[in-house]
Structure formats: C-alpha cells, structure tokens
Inverse folding.
C-alpha cells in the first residue's frame, strides 16, 4: 500500500478536516534499463556542462526561467516560498459543483484522502453530504511545488481528491478541414448506428479490462529468459570509473597512470621478485 506523501486539511467556511493524501493509482509500465550491449554495463546519467563537457557539481546547478530571447533569471527556493499561498497545508474549497459538469479533459490524477486526528466525524459528514447532493467540492491547494486545482468527491467509504487541469493547460482546438466540410448524414445511417450502440451497451466494469500489450510483452520477455537469453548485468568494481573521462579529470588520471607505470594504479612488481 502506498504511503501518504502529504498531510494537511480540507477547509471550507470554518470547517477544518485533517487529512492525508496518498496515490489512488499507479503506473504499471515495464521498467527498462539502458545498458551497453557489449558488456551489459549500465549506462549512467551525468549532468554535464554542454559548453565545456565537464560534469557540474550538484551545488553549482540552479534553476532559471527564460524571460526574453537569450536572457534568463535564476529562481531560488526563496522565490518559490514567497509565491506560496499563506496556508500551504490545506485544500480550501472554493465552491460545490455538480460532478457531471466537470468535463473529462479537466481530470488529471486521482488521490485517496484519508482522515487524520482523533475521529473521522467531519470527514464522514462531508463524504455523506457530497454523496447525497451529487456534488463535488472544487478546491485549491499546494501540492509538492505548485498550486493545484482539485475536485473532491465520494467513492465508497473514501473521499477522492482528483487534481484538475487549469483551462490554460488544455490546448486550443483547431478544427480539421475535414470537419469543416458539410456532411449530410442519411437517416438510415443514424438509425443503424443507434441500433449498434444499443446492442453493444452495457454497465461499466473496470475488472473486464486489462493491458493486453503489457501482458504479451512481459510473456515474451519471460520466454526469452527461460530460453537462456538472459545475461548477467555487469557491475563495475568499487573505485572503477563508471563513466567516460571528462576533460576536467583527464590530466590527473594521466599523471596517476604515469606514476603507477601504466598499471592502472597497481604497484609495480620488483624486478627481483
């Protein structure tokens, strides 16, 4: 079970409901690793200065925002903190709207709201009231590093907080030239399409659907492993360079190599040994 990653409250009027938030969905994508096909050594990721080719220390990396062509401003943690709302640990309900009025393109990511504190009285009251009214609470609050819009609605014994996309996050729609052409639909076509929809209609059952591509791909991978096609992933010895030499440390490595007689840092054996 996923752990709660945020704790705060739902607020509306003078009502304050302590809650925690945890993911209500998870990615089931297969996890692939990049390796060098020659020796199966993992291919790492380095933060490199694109001008010098040298690796950049973590404390020298900053965030910038482009304000004009060729110009950018450094954005610090203090800037992010100043922009935060005064109550950064609450989702404040702005209004109660009919859930059906929120169109599907606005829905983003679902989270499970769970009650915190000594009892769940206020939590259950909100859930029951929303359930009876058929409405969703539209709220705003800070989640991780940005302010999110969200719909809070009941589902079973829980309240779900589903983040919503702001209007400006939806791309403008330009009608295709094909849609602009006038099309005359024959009554017989409409009737036949309606009959087909009626024949194929049924109740929504999420358990009926699964990712067949995911299952087939995983099956092929397991067959290849069973057939002996799996290779041991190479793990470099401790102290061995894990990435290509950068310009910055080339000279020091060359100097160390000369001093060790070209033996990769090993001590030279005595001629009399």
């Amino acid at each position: 079970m996923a752990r709660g990653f945020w704790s705060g409250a739902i607020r509306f009027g003078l009502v304050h409901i302590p809650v925690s938030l945890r993911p209500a969905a998870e990615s089931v994508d297969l996890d692939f690793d990049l390796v060098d096909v020659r020796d199966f050594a993992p291919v790492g990721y380095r933060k490199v200065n694109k001008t010098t080719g040298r690796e950049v220390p973590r404390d020298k990396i900053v965030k910038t925002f482009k304000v004009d062509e060729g110009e950018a401003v450094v954005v610090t943690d203090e800037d992010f903190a100043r922009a935060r709302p005064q109550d950064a640990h609450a989702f404040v309900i702005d209004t109660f709207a009919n859930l059906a009025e929120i169109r599907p393109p606005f829905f983003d990511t679902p989270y499970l709201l769970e009650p915190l504190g000594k009892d769940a009285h206020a939590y259950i009251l909100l859930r029951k009231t929303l359930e009876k009214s058929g409405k969703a609470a539209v709220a705003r609050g800070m989640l991780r590093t940005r302010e999110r819009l969200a719909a809070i609605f009941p589902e079973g014994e829980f309240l779900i907080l589903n983040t919503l996309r702001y209007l400006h996050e939806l791309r403008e729609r330009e009608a295709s030239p094909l849609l602009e052409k006038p099309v005359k639909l024959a009554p017989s076509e409409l009737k036949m399409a309606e009959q087909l929809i009626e024949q194929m209609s049924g109740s929504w059952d999420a358990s009926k659907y699964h990712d067949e591509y995911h299952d087939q791909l995983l099956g092929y991978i397991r067959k290849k492993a069973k057939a002996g096609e799996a290779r041991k992933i190479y793990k470099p010895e401790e102290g061995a360079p894990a990435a290509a030499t950068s310009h910055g440390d080339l000279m020091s490595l060359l100097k160390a190599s000369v001093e060790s007689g070209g033996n990769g840092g090993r001590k030279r054996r005595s001629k009399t040994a």
Notes: The chain is about 25% helix and 25% strand. Helices lie at 77-83, 121-133, 177-180, 187-200, 212-226, 247-259. Residues 6-28+76-169 form a domain with the Ku70; Chain: A; Domain 2 fold (CATH 2.40.290.10). The longest strand covers residues 146-155.
